[in-house]
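User: Could you go from structure to sequence for me? I need the amino acid at each position, not a summary. Structure tokens:
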């Protein structure tokens, strides 16, 4: 099966990026997770991005805060899809990372999820892989049904206590 690389610039990103890992595990997708600073260890970063395809990665999920160069640099080197996860920071509430990731130059696209959207990045990676994997597509469709059932259960609870739909 295809693998996904999960990379982040700092261990402070781990809580958010573990959401991506959680979703990949739910769908039975193999992944590798690591911490690499594109700024502090560019040689290690370059080796990671350059060898990702040979490792069997079909998608990279890259999380970064602040200037957030990691996702864009992955996309510049890795020829397959990269999903950027902007990480919240106290300075600019994550908007700096969001703008940095979403405003890539023409020819270097990075799919971008919401600030702290690690779980959605995992789901998006699963959907990308599901385009060529029928069994995975069935798992993604089942997950969507789980989401629907969860909302229906909440709706029923509200109706039981006397609230009406508006």
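Assistant: Here is the amino acid at each position, in order:
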């Amino acid at each position: 099966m295809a693998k996904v690389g999960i990379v982040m610039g700092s261990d402070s990103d781990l809580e958010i990026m573990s959401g991506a890992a959680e979703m990949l595990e739910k769908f039975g997708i193999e992944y590798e997770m690591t911490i690499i600073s594109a700024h502090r260890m560019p040689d290690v970063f370059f080796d990671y991005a350059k060898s990702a395809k040979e490792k069997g990665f079909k998608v990279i999920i890259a999380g970064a805060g602040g200037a957030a160069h990691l996702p864009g640099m992955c996309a510049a080197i890795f020829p397959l899809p990269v999903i950027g996860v902007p990480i919240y920071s106290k300075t600019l509430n994550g908007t700096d990372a969001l703008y940095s990731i979403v405003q890539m130059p023409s020819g270097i696209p990075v799919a971008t999820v919401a600030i702290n959207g690690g779980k959605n990045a995992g789901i998006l990676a699963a959907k990308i892989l599901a385009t060529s994997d029928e069994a995975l597509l069935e798992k993604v469709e089942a997950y969507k049904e789980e989401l629907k059932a969860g909302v229906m259960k909440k709706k029923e609870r509200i109706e039981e206590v006397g609230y009406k739909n508006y």
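One structural detail worth keeping in mind: DSSP finds six helices and five strands in the chain.
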